[in-house]
Write a structure and sequence with these properties.
alpha/beta; five-stranded parallel sheet; two-stranded antiparallel sheet; 22 helices; 9 strands; globular; METTL25; SAM-dependent_MTases_sf
């Protein structure tokens, strides 16, 4: 079922189903790992063994259900929880119910491939985004993880812009400009990247400035040299005439020089600002030719040549850096030829932000956000609704634990008049509330493997046992002071506890090393309980995330807007 084909009533019915499921199960998601042993969380909420939980969660509910006559003695349950004790007694039932109450289980998702196909089928007549410029691989100038995210989202954004017939993109929370740069360089879109950090925007601006300055002098030279080399195949060739200088001045290079090999033409030595266009790889270099070419470059983009290091002797990091900078230089030149622009802007964005105050050349645009943190995601949706110049929005939120909730019982999260959750009037009328720990659990949807690994589980275990020690020996165990990242520096559990006590400014002389180790040994046998409990949180994560996203979908539907989920 496509979300755009669902009526508002149908979406509200799906929300009701998820709320009913979470009303039974949310206590598990809201249980704090730090208090796992001090509040005896396992016995409070679970009536089966850790092995049963890990088996059911690990099998993905592929195990066959027990025959009915063997299950008849179990009490009546709702989503695997006993109706009387409210404890979990049937993990397989819970796992199956969680699948059914996730967005895919509710039939409210469409695949990325189907979304792209739908946008292409109804695109405007100006051509597909892929036809705009030559393709390149983003993992040549960013990490593999970031590359996957940027490449996947940028294709959707480009198709969306094409579908809407717009050429401007506003990237909210643009950070270091990865998505913005790729959209500009790959799809020749005019992108405005807005970020609250001046450090991010200044860095992106400076990089673009240097790349643009370099490309005007260097790319025209190498492109002409390569063309002549392919045409003549001669070891000697006439050096090109360069008519336009870096600042619009007339700079002329003339004379004869050695053939420049294309492999060396593409070489970048140190950074986007440390470029050495000197020719290498030929048995006899011509210093006069090199000097002439270097004179065409601005002084601040030239650094002395470094000794050539064979590629086989370069570190993996150095090879990756050179690939990344080489691509940035070539891609910037490509962007210059197509008129694409990436303009980093510094501003704190809210729903009330007036875009025309930030962007003088604002036209109809697509608003995007990759990893829009906390309240920034709902703010972009509110802005989309309020700004007629925004033709579409494509938002991927994150950090749900940083969302402010309007109906927080403690009244501490929503300190401003506008909160991040709930967004829809439908859930606001119900005073819907998740809780910070539950929203933190929603971030675990992709961490099933990580939580099963020893290092992260041990870190959680150490913190929970420390809380027991603080309860037993220190009256300030509920102190607002945080332990911080002590685990990564600790050599053992004893060392961890002593570092934590010093961080909390508590008297560590109260406990001997053997006293501390005894705590570890006592609770170590119950570590599988914590592991199993966290896997239950992982199981519920897609349902909590689903409620947050359904709230946003419902909000857009309440405004009479067509959306794709």
């Amino acid at each position: 079922m496509k979300p755009s084909s669902c009526s508002l009533t149908e979406i509200q019915q799906q929300i009701d189903e998820v709320i009913r499921f979470l009303s039974i199960t949310l206590n598990i998601a809201n249980a704090h790992t730090v208090e796992f042993y001090t509040h005896d969380v396992w016995k409070r909420f679970v009536a089966v063994s850790p092995e049963d939980v890990l088996s059911a969660v690990g099998s993905g509910n592929d195990q066959q259900r027990e025959p009915q006559h063997r299950r008849s003695e179990q009490p009546s349950t709702t989503f695997g929880f006993c109706n009387d004790t409210k404890r979990l007694v049937d993990t397989q039932e819970l796992v199956q119910a969680a699948k059914e109450h996730s967005l895919p289980g509710l039939g409210l998702c469409m695949s990325r491939e189907n979304l792209l196909q739908g946008l292409r089928d109804t695109r405007s007549e100006s051509g597909t985004p892929e036809e705009t410029v030559a393709a390149f691989e983003p993992d040549e100038f960013m990490t593999s993880k970031k590359s996957h995210e940027v490449q996947s989202m940028s294709e959707v954004v480009a198709c969306l812009a094409q579908h809407c017939g717009v050429n401007q993109v506003i990237d909210v929370g643009s950070g270091k400009g990865y998505l913005s740069s790729f959209l500009s360089l790959q799809y020749a879109l005019r992108v405005y990247g807005i970020d609250s950090s001046s450090t991010n925007t200044h860095g992106a601006q400076e990089r673009n400035r240097k790349l643009k300055k370099f490309s005007k002098a260097y790319q025209k030279h190498t492109k002409a040299a390569r063309t002549q080399a392919e045409a003549t195949h001669s070891p000697q060739e006439e050096l090109i005439e360069k008519k336009t200088g870096l600042n619009g001045d007339e700079d002329v290079l003339s004379g004869n020089g050695p053939r420049i090999r294309s492999q060396e033409e593409e070489r970048v030595l140190t950074s986007s600002s440390d470029i050495n266009p000197a020719v290498e790889g030929h048995s006899e270099q011509n210093p006069e030719t090199d000097e002439l070419f270097l004179s065409a470059l601005s002084v601040d983009v030239i650094q002395p040549a470094s000794p050539r290091v064979p590629p086989s002797q370069l570190s993996a990091e150095e090879r990756e850096r050179r690939k990344r900078e080489n691509l940035e230089r070539k891609a910037q030149s490509r962007a210059d030829s197509t008129g694409a622009v990436f303009s980093p802007l510094t501003s704190y964005v809210t729903a009330e932000t007036e875009l025309r105050d930030l962007i003088n050349e604002l036209e109809d645009a697509v608003m995007v956000g990759l990893h829009t943190c906390g309240d920034l995601a709902p703010s972009t949706l509110r802005m989309f609704v309020a700004k007629p110049e925004l033709a579409a929005v494509c938002s991927v939120g994150c950090c749900y634990h940083l969302l402010s909730e309007e109906f927080d019982p403690a009244g501490q999260e929503c300190l401003q008049s506008v909160c991040g959750f709930p967004l829809s009037q439908y859930l606001r009328d119900q005073s819907c509330f998740c809780g910070r720990n539950a929203r933190m659990s929603a971030c675990l949807a992709l961490e099933r493997v990580a939580l099963g690994q020893g290092i992260q589980m041990e870190s959680l275990f150490y913190r929970a046992v420390l809380h027991v020690i603080l309860r037993d020996h220190y009256s300030s165990y509920k102190s607002e002071k945080r332990v911080g990242n002590v685990y990564s520096k600790a050599k053992s559990f004893v060392d961890y506890v002593r570092r934590a006590l010093r961080r909390l400014e508590l008297d560590e002389s109260k406990l001997s090393d053997s006293d501390i180790q005894d705590y570890h040994n006592t609770y170590r046998v119950r570590m599988d309980e914590m592991h199993a409990f966290n896997m239950l949180k992982v199981t519920l994560a897609p349902c909590i995330e689903g409620l947050i996203l359904l709230d946003r979908l419902c909000y857009l539907k309440e405004q009479g807007l067509v959306v794709e989920q």
